[in-house]
TrEMBL record:
GO molecular function: glycosyltransferase activity; metal ion binding
Lineage: Bacteria, Bacillati, Bacillota, Bacilli, Lactobacillales
The entry's keywords: Glycosyltransferase, Metal-binding, Transferase
The protein's name: Glycosyltransferase
Family annotation (InterPro entries): Glyco_trans_8 (IPR002495), Glycosyltrans_8_dom-fam (IPR050748), Nucleotide-diphossugar_trans (IPR029044)
Family matches, as Pfam families: Glyco_transf_8
Length: 275
């Protein structure tokens, strides 16, 4: 199967994106092929290296330089750099012949086949994404009040399957920029907040325990499932481990069980690149 993948990274995060892509290659069918689009402010210094490495994994690297003119009317500051808009404006920034793409944050490890997520039916929907599990949906309720929305659903934007064909008709830059301006005092995660404020009703929910497992909430998952979603279950079924927050698995001081798994993939990648 052919998959279109989307990232938005700078030189600092390019090496982490490589770990994500390596994990996809290791755990998806070897017959899969990929076009990897990387949104960037300026050409990555590692572009030639990325292109060569990805070619080993049946992946084609497509750098997408973002035109500043797209953001002429956007509220941009240190807190709101233009990069926060990238995934929301993918339909404006990517080639017009693409109909579907999967956006992934670069702090994700894929430990099982990604293909079923890509095959989610988006008919009549803009996106597919996951809501993170919590007790009594307190997060969703609080965000519904904070963002003044009509739905208690609050989706994480780190794994986002995008219906580009539909987005070209329904996603409008000026509408996004206006939400940033009018809600600037209540936005915490601007791109994610805007996604939920404007498009929550047009998102097909997928299970976070499968496709956007927040490793910080391991105990919540186990408690909510009454022990069903154990470590063995996660290893066998979960597709995307998401290392949300400031504690990242590549940091030397991060030594929890999922960080150790990440470091293993990181080590395997390093060995492959040396060979």
């Amino acid at each position: 199967m052919h998959l279109n993948l989307l990232f938005a990274v700078d030189d600092k995060f390019a090496e982490h994106m490589l770990v994500t892509l390596f994990s996809i290659f290791r755990n998806s069918p070897t017959t899969n092929t990929y076009d990897v689009y990387v949104l960037q402010d300026q050409p990555l210094q590692q572009a030639a290296h990325l292109k060569a490495v990805l070619a080993r994994w049946h992946m084609t690297y497509h750098p997408v330089l973002v035109d500043d003119a797209v953001f002429n009317d956007a509220p941009v500051s240190d807190r709101y750099p233009k990069s926060i808009y990238y995934r929301l404006l993918a339909s404006e920034l990517l080639p017009q012949d693409l109909d579907k793409i999967l956006y992934l944050d670069a702090d994700i490890l894929v430990i099982n086949d990604l293909t079923p997520l890509y095959q989610v039916d988006l008919t009549g929907q803009l996106y597919a994404a996951a809501m993170h599990t919590d007790f009594l949906n307190l997060t969703g309720t609080l965000n519904q009040f904070r963002l003044d929305t009509t739905t208690p659903h609050y989706f994480n934007s780190g794994v986002l399957l995008i219906n580009l064909a539909r987005a070209r008709q329904q996603v409008h830059p000026q509408e996004i920029f206006e939400v940033i301006r009018s809600h600037k005092n209540v936005l915490i995660l601007p791109d994610q907040d805007v996604l939920n404020k404007l498009y929550a009703k047009d998102i097909q929910p997928v299970a976070d325990v499968l496709y956007n497992y927040d490793v910080r909430k391991d105990l919540v998952y186990q408690t909510t499932s009454q022990g069903k979603w154990s470590l063995d279950w996660v290893i066998a079924h979960t597709v995307c481990l998401h290392f949300c927050g400031t504690k990242k698995p590549w940091q030397p001081t991060t030594t929890d069980k999922y960080a150790l798994l990440y470091k293993h993939y990181q080590h395997q990648l390093t060995r492959q690149l040396v060979d």
